[in-house]
Specification:
The complex is a heterodimer of chains A (681) and B (324).
Chain A lengths: L1 H11 L2 H19 L5 H12 L4 H26 L11 H47 L3 H12 L2 H4 L4 H14 L3 E2 L6 E2 L13 H19 L22 H23 L5 H15 L11 H17 L1 H7 L5 H12 L8 H4 L1 H33 L3 H20 L2 H19 L5 H23 L11 H31 L5 H10 L9 E5 H27 L12 H23 L6 E5 H24 L1 H16 L4 H22 L12
Antiparallel strand pairs in A: 1-2, 3-4
Helix pairs in contact in A: 1-16, 2-3, 2-4, 2-16, 3-4, 3-14, 4-5, 4-12, 4-14, 4-16, 5-10, 5-12, 5-13, 5-16, 6-19, 6-20, 8-19, 8-23, 9-17, 9-18, 10-11, 10-12, 11-12, 17-18, 17-25, 17-26, 18-24, 22-23, 24-25, 25-26
Chain B lengths: L1 H26 L6 E5 L6 H17 L3 E5 L7 H7 L7 E4 L2 H10 L9 E10 L2 E5 L7 H9 L4 E5 L2 H4 L1 H9 L6 E5 L3 H9 L5 E4 L1 H9 L3 E6 L25 E8 L4 H15 L2 H9 L2 E7 H22 L6
Parallel strand pairs in B: 1-2, 1-3, 6-7, 6-8
Antiparallel strand pairs in B: 3-10, 4-10, 4-11, 5-8, 5-9
Helix pairs in contact in B: 2-10, 4-12
Classes of the chains: A mainly alpha (681), B alpha/beta (324).
Chain lengths: 681, 324
């Protein structure tokens, strides 16, 4: 084995091959850093280039693009508050918080280090254990996957922040959103309202971009920017740009646990790097002594999430090489690349083409080294770009978000999805509901429901199938431990708060700060009780769940017999939980009604939000009826001016050049056609 | 008077230019790139096969073909878009069997078969029945015996198209086969994993999901459920050969929006005929799990129309037809 690995390194290090690895990694980082363009697209884009290459360089190029892409996602997450790929969703909150404190480079370096270490760890696991571990992965049947999904859902606890109830409500919301699409038992459309675009469900990437990025832009827009400031402030001292000894100490444990989590998730087919990131983040939170920092710029959080998602990438090849089964979408595209070169992924490949396998192993390890070097080289450029003024960077970002959502299915419907979820995210922010739990629910929903339904079909409705194997029982025990630690820590937290805080006032002030708009805004405002606002929010949500139960679901879910448990069982259970949690939240608000303060609703700000929404609708219509170029030029121009940018010498060229650059990248680089002017046929 | 003259001249010029333009258009089609809509995402079997064929059809057509993916809606978003394009021969696309004959029974779609002028059927999707290597069912006869004895068996497939096999067998033999229980998975690969892990008893799937594991000895294929044997596993007989006149037949076919000039349609048809009959392309299509075969546009339209009726009746018997 060692001599094979040695030969692999010799082959990879040949200058001719190294170039391809270098190219793959660079393409991956850049595509990953653009919101909406995922590692998947990076690989899909590289495949045609590899057709004429021998197997080893082409696989290296693909793996380089894959690894680069997953790391690249965190660049946008940190600098722009936009997850470049869905796997970076867990990094957004902490990464961007650090960047806003002038520590962008520190955050990027932490992310890079954690990524490379996680990746290397999982590659080593792959190299030594591939074939044996692949067998274990097969033990996961519908019952075990149901247990995995429930176990993973316990992340909602730590991700909820201050209010567990609010986190639970948004998690139920995410699970409900995932119901849209084909019914997993019957494959009849469900909750699609007869729209073909909804038959495959809401697409993850557009939803993600909308929910996490657009609210950020809207919040900036809402407060008129008087002094034009930089999007990311410059570092204030030397420690802001490097990983200090204290950071290192904080990072070690999250990186170890994140790598272990991510690798375990990668080995089981069908879970993927996004879950790896959230599980890594969760593990970091559980071990942390500084839990209050999570979500506000925690070094541990970034380290956990980034080692968690990157360590999925190597382990994903375990099922691919061990069994011939791709672990996720990216690996599925890699299967195509193997087949093109007349190689069948699976256990036989170790006998058929050991040199390719070991070349691939060596390539994986080399890719990590190169990823580190290239990314270190590119960091200053990225940071400089993000250091531009908000008035310039946000309009371009908005166009990029729209185009990124469009690119995946080439569908304007998805752009609408992005904008709509932007509004939802904005509303959730205003009412202090966490958004991360919504995403967790949405990602885990299909895993949970599909497998539960399958289990029920196989066992004819007997629940014992969920506890049949030792593996499943182990997973359930893990879940129990996880739930009890969360409840215990919440209880401790409450006790500590009650011991420390004065009986009244403290909480009221914080709530007021978060809800009120900036004092800079002059003009009329309305004094609204936070109690009314919060109770109103809870009641509206309660009403929504009830309305779904009484009107929407019975009409939109078909229930033919003979396909296991009723198709309404799972959706209705969610609605029940939704009603329960929102009802409890309303009661909780009433119980604590004396603690609330007031917030100022500014007329001007409200008006600006309305113009923003109108602007997004107009831009969407423009894409449909005027094509990409015209609407984007006009859109950037208007948005720059509305944001308060006065230097026309900057705005003019920007409005023309930015859409042209984006157009060139998509049309010629990615071969994705952007909406054209409809009258040119 | 003068105005009238000017008017006449203008009208004359307009008429002349129309004739000229029309004439050139008649004389030469195509004179610019043709856009080709694929109704599934990039990288899948349908996408790769279509791209292969387009790359060859460009030569006899004399213009390049740009492939655009319009995925979504279980393959119905592409045809929906295609049906609303101008029938000038510059936008064509995939109208495979599933969105033409299956999906309209299960969901609301805005098109009917009449909205398309079919160009060609280019290849068969292949289906087969497979069990794990350690399964007690060594042959198709073993499996049928177990089913007829009333043993409960779980069968995994990604869509009703494959699952319909056993209701059809039940109809043919006149025996009850409701003991074969359908477990739905999201993709063919997932069904393979479930079968390898022993979580289901059998799968009905495509060559890409079965053939590699058969070659490594992890799975055993009992029968081809298509009307023909698989080029990748030519030793396995079809269900028909074993005395059951039952099969699942699904094709990949292309179309233009209805109303296209017949001369343009035939030009496209012959271009794709050349592509399908290219030996190199056939080899690659076989590797992708397809059975290359040419069917003219009208034949393919007829095939879809008949399939539409049969599928409708079959889906109704299993309770999967949409209510409205």
């Amino acid at each position: 084995m060692w001599d094979l690995l040695f030969n692999g390194f010799a082959e990879v290090l040949a200058p001719g091959n190294l170039i391809y690895l270098l190219g793959g990694v660079t393409v991956g980082i850049i595509l990953g850093a653009i919101p909406g363009l995922t590692a998947t697209m990076g690989i899909a884009m590289v495949i045609p280039l590899t057709l004429t290459l021998p197997p080893i360089p082409s696989l290296m190029m693909l793996m380089g693009a894959y690894k680069g892409g997953i790391f690249g996602g965190s660049i946008a997450a940190i600098l722009l508050c936009a997850p470049g790929t869905s796997a970076a969703a867990a990094t957004v909150a902490d990464g961007h918080a650090l960047a806003k404190a002038g520590k962008a480079i520190k955050a990027l370096k932490i992310s890079l280090t954690a990524s490379v270490i996680g990746d290397t760890f999982s590659d080593i696991v792959l190299i030594f254990l591939a074939v044996n571990l692949a067998r274990v992965a097969l033990q996961f049947g519908p019952g075990e996957f149901t247990a995995v999904a429930i176990m993973a859902l316990t992340i909602v606890g730590p991700a909820s922040g201050k209010s567990l109830l609010k986190g639970l409500i948004t998690a139920v919301g995410g699970l409900m959103l995932a119901l849209i699409g084909l019914d997993p038992g019957t494959s009849l459309p469900r909750l699609t309202f007869d729209l073909n675009e909804l038959v495959d469900g809401i697409a993850l990437v557009p939803m993600l971009i909308g929910l996490l990025t657009i609210p950020e832009i809207m919040a900036q827009y809402e407060q008129r920017v008087k002094t034009v400031k930089a999007h990311i402030p410059p570092p204030t001292c030397k420690d802001d740009t490097r990983i200090t000894r204290r950071d290192w100490k904080l990072m070690v444990r999250p990186m170890v646990s994140g790598s272990l989590m991510g690798t375990a998730i990668g080995i089981v087919p069908g879970l993927g790097p996004t879950l790896g990131a959230f599980m890594g983040y969760d593990a970091a939170w559980r071990q942390s002594k500084h839990r209050e920092e999570f979500g506000r710029g925690s070094v541990e959080g970034i380290a956990g999430a980034e080692s968690g998602n990157n360590s999925v990438s190597g382990a994903n090849l375990v099922p691919l090489l061990g069994l011939g089964i791709p672990g996720d979408v990216e690996a599925a595209i890699l299967v195509g690349a193997f087949l093109i070169h007349d190689l069948t992924p699976g256990p036989l490949i170790f006998q058929e083409a050991p040199n390719v396998v070991y070349g691939l192993y060596a390539g994986l390890l080399m890719a990590n080294v190169l990823l580190y070097c290239i990314a270190r080289g590119l960091l200053p450029t990225f940071t400089k770009a993000a250091g531009l003024r908000v008035t310039i960077i946000f309009p371009v970002m908005l166009v990029l978000c729209a185009v990124g959502s469009y690119a995946f299915n080439q569908s304007l419907f998805d752009v609408g999805v992005t904008f709509s979820f932007g509004l939802l995210g904005y509303a959730l922010n205003k009412l202090n509901f966490p958004r991360a739990t919504f995403l967790i629910g949405f990602i885990l929903g299909p895993l949970l429901e599909d497998n539960f339904r399958r289990a029920m079909v196989i066992s004819q409705g007997e629940l014992h199938i969920l506890f049949d194997s030792p593996l499943a029982i182990g997973l359930w025990i893990f879940t129990l431990i996880s739930v009890s630690t969360i409840l215990y820590s919440k209880w401790r937290q409450r006790q500590r708060v009650e011991a420390l805080a004065p009986p009244q006032g403290q909480e009221a002030i914080t709530e007021e700060e978060e809800c009120s708009v900036s004092e800079e805004n002059k003009g009329g405002y309305l004094r609204v009780s936070n109690f009314v606002l919060q109770l109103g929010g809870a009641l509206v949500i309660f009403g929504f769940f009830l309305f779904c139960y009484l009107v929407v679901f019975p009409a939109q879910v078909e229930t033919p017999g003979g396909f296991g448990v009723s198709a309404l069982l799972f959706p209705n259970s969610l609605l029940f939980l939704g009603c329960l949690f929102s009802g409890l939240l309303a009661l909780d608000h009433i119980r604590r009604r004396k603690d609330y303060g007031y917030s100022k609703m500014n007329y001007n700000a409200a008006l600006r939000v309305c113009t923003y929404v109108a602007g997004m609708i107009l831009y969407l219509l423009g894409l449909e009826y005027l094509g990409f170029m015209i609407s984007s030029v006009v859109g950037i121009l208007c948005f720059c001016i509305l944001l308060g940018e006065r230097k026309m010498a900057v705005v003019g060229p920007l409005a023309v050049l930015a859409p042209m650059a984006i157009y060139a990248l998509f049309e010629f680089g990615l071969k994705v056609q952007l909406p054209a002017m409809p009258w040119v046929d | 008077m003068r105005l009238l003259k000017l008017g006449t001249i203008l009208a004359g010029v307009a008429a002349l230019s129309l004739v000229l333009l029309g004439g050139t258009a008649m004389a030469k089609y195509p004179d610019k790139p043709v856009t080709f809509i694929v109704n599934y995402g990039a990288g899948g079997t349908t996408d790769l096969t279509s791209r292969l064929l387009c790359s060859v059809a460009e030569k006899p057509l004399g213009e390049s073909i740009t492939v655009v993916n319009k995925a979504g809606g279980g393959g119905t978003v592409g045809p929906t878009y295609l049906a609303t394009r101008k029938p000038n021969g510059y936008t064509i696309g995939v109208t495979s069997f599933s969105p033409m004959a299956v999906a309209p029974h299960m969901m609301k779609v805005s098109y009917t078969l009449k909205d398309f002028a079919f160009i060609a059927g280019v290849c068969r999707y292949l289906y087969g029945v497979a069990v794990a290597a350690d399964s007690p069912y060594k042959t198709w006869a073993d499996l049928m015996k177990a089913i007829e004895s009333g043993k409960r068996l779980t069968m995994a497939t990604p869509s009703p198209v494959q699952a319909i096999l056993f209701p059809r067998l039940a109809k043919f033999t006149g025996k009850d086969m409701s003991n074969v229980v359908w477990v739905r998975y999201k993709s063919g690969k997932q069904t393979t994993v479930a079968l390898l892990g022993g979580h289901v008893d059998l799968i009905v799937g495509n060559p890409m999901d079965i053939a590699p594991q058969v070659k490594t000895g992890q799975l055993r294929m009992l029968a081809s459920a298509s009307p023909v044997r698989w080029p990748l596993l030519p030793d396995v007989p079809t269900i028909k050969e074993m005395g059951y006149n039952v099969s699942i037949d699904s094709w990949l076919g292309f179309a233009a929006p209805a109303g296209i000039e017949e001369s343009r349609r035939t030009k496209l048809q012959s271009a794709f005929k050349v592509a399908v009959e290219d030996k190199k392309i056939q080899k690659k299509m076989i590797d992708l799990g397809m059975a290359p075969m040419f069917m003219s546009g009208p034949e393919y339209g007829q095939f879809c129309a008949e399939g539409f009726k049969v599928m409708g009746a079959d889906l109704k018997t299993v309770g999967l037809k949409k209510k409205k």
